[in-house]
Amino acid sequence: MRRLGRCMLLALALAPALAAAAPRADEVRGFRFQIVTADDSAVTRRIADDLYKRLVPIFAGFRTELAQKRRMLYLAIGPAALREVAERRCDCAVISAFTSSQVWHTIQSALPTQQANSMTAVYAEPAPSDQLRLVSLLYRRPVRVAAILGSDTAFLKPVLAGPLEVEDYAAGDDINRILNRIAQTEVLLALPDSDIYNPENIRNILLSTYRHKQGVIGFSADMVRAGALATTYSEVEEINTQVAEMAGEFVASGQLPPPQFPRYFRTIVNEGVARSLELTVSDEARRFARPVPSRQP
């Protein structure tokens, strides 16, 4: 598939794990890492095969003394694989990829402190800061932006509460009432929260925001194709590049970097939705991206 968004069906980021067959631990002797997957789909194989090729040269010079006791690094591809690794309760380090920040925080927060501190991630969804930059490029004027946060995404409130109008969502809340409360804002920043952006709500949210002339900044390319205005998104190889960089930091220092949103990305715009919102999309907005740096000789 050409785009990572296709890995994440609309209800996606919220739900089932991408995962995949990858080299087993006994196939990578001499290297202190294992790619953990939960299915054998073509997308997951693509993720695992590409990641394996990036990790082998990094771990060729692995010095176990730098990693102290954590001499095994697990790369968990998707939510199901992350849950599997978390259940092992091993003395190891874990990098999660292709899992939303919501799911990662839910799993990580339920673990004992020592184990939780030995995990990090490259989240599946775009960075809110990059999404807000995209909003400024699309509208080219100050606009009011809202976000709806459930209990599992409340950890983002300190980051969003300043530049955005944040509405809280609790189980059983009427999503229509919340949408009416933010009807005067011009943009809704959607975040992958399965309590809010689920198959039952998503069509209603897109129709309501369309009637209110609000642009929705989605969290995947699929969401844009379904009716959101635009989003930044990352390809498999862009996420894997960042994961490999994090693994390289671990090999060099024995320390895991903190969890991160995708560093490398590109942009997709729904031109039909933009026209209905009477937006003239600039080439600068369409080309908004942070590409992977070219490899140096």
TrEMBL record:
Transmembrane segments: none annotated. InterPro entries: ABC_transpt-TYRBP-like. Coiled coil: none annotated. It comes from the Bacteria. Residues 1-21 form the signal peptide. Keywords: Signal. PANTHER family: ABC TRANSPORTER, SUBSTRATE-BINDING LIPOPROTEIN, ABC TRANSPORTER, SUBSTRATE-BINDING LIPOPROTEIN-RELATED. This is ABC transporter substrate-binding protein. It comes from Massilia horti. The lineage of its organism: Bacteria, Pseudomonadati, Pseudomonadota, Betaproteobacteria, Burkholderiales.
